[in-house]
Design goal:
Blueprint (H helix, E strand, L loop, with lengths): L2 H8 L4 H35 L4 H13 L1 H15 L16 E5 L2 H13 L5 E4 L7 H12 L6 E4 L10 H16 L4 E5 L13 H20 L2 E3 L1 H5 L16 H20 L2
Parallel strand pairs: 1-2, 1-3, 3-4, 4-5
């Protein structure tokens, strides 16, 4: 037997026990390294932010308060330090152009830049300062998302995060959100919840849940005269090749297609009397 193993045996300890005893220290070291890296990232971000005009600093503060430290905010900080654009870029309005607000979850985040590209010179395209999630979060945060500006068009979606929401609750919250958004005087567009591959990791149940929520949403939108951008019907025939395997998200081509379709629906509302 090797000397180390003999020593372990002498003290009645196994290699597995030694490893287990060391893990808290390793975990603590890993946590300390992560905290140091997070602090370094924030220091760089704050230095970048401090050089911005006041209105842009204010927008970054809103993002810091709403994006969440776990995923989106660190990504945003890294983008800004590296000089990369993302869905939450500050939008400097051209006063001659209409103002558009995008509200939605990570799917909406994915097509935001493509909508801006398609509508360059046609509209100022903003988005809500977070992954908007379910209708429950919408009711809670809608005032923050609307901000103080005037909106000409609001394009919104709630669905995937509401897939397990009781139908009556989903309908009631949609009603409340529509009522509030209509008070802005903006034209409203609801985007149906996008389809998912049949082999998605959430199982076939999610397909049924999305269909249920889309049916409820269509009924509510028709009741309130809200335009519908049927992204589900648009994407379903061409899902192969644009949807991530076993996932609710899409690849670059998918988001580009959605961005163009969203831009068309917004343009139609801007052009209508």
């Amino acid at each position: 037997m090797k000397p180390v193993l003999l020593l372990l045996a002498f003290f009645g300890l196994s290699q597995a026990q030694i490893k287990t005893q060391n893990e808290p220290t390793n975990t603590a070291e890993a946590a300390a390294k992560k905290a140091a890296a997070d602090q370094a990232l924030d220091d760089q971000y704050q230095a970048w932010k401090s050089k911005l005009p006041v209105d842009q600093q204010a927008w970054e503060t809103v993002l810091e308060q709403n994006l969440g430290n776990g995923f989106y905010l660190p990504l945003h900080k890294k983008d800004k330090i590296a000089g990369r654009s993302n869905a939450w870029d500050f939008v400097q309005d051209d006063p001659k152009l209409p103002r558009v607000l995008l509200i939605g979850d990570s799917i909406s985040r994915g097509y935001t830049l493509d909508v801006r590209k398609a509508m360059a010179g046609k509209a100022n395209v903003h988005r809500a300062p977070e992954n908007c999630g379910p209708t429950a979060n919408g009711v809670k945060k809608i005032e923050i998302w609307l901000g103080a500006g005037k909106w000409d068009v609001i394009h919104f979606n709630f669905g995937i995060h509401d897939r397990k929401t009781p139908p009556a609750d989903y309908e009631q919250r949609l009603e409340a959100l529509i009522t509030r958004m209509k008070q802005t005087g903006a034209k409203l567009i609801f985007a149906t919840t996008t389809p998912v591959p049949p082999d998605t990791k959430d199982g076939p149940e999610i397909v049924t849940q999305i269909a249920e929520k889309n049916e409820i949403a269509r009924r509510v939108m028709q009741k309130h005269g809200v335009a519908i951008n049927d992204l589900h019907a648009f994407l379903a025939p061409q899902l192969e090749g644009i949807a991530n395997p076993k996932d609710v998200h899409f690849n670059g081509k998918g988001y580009e297609l959605m961005g163009q379709q969203v831009a068309k629906s917004i343009t139609a509302q801007i052009s209508s009397p």
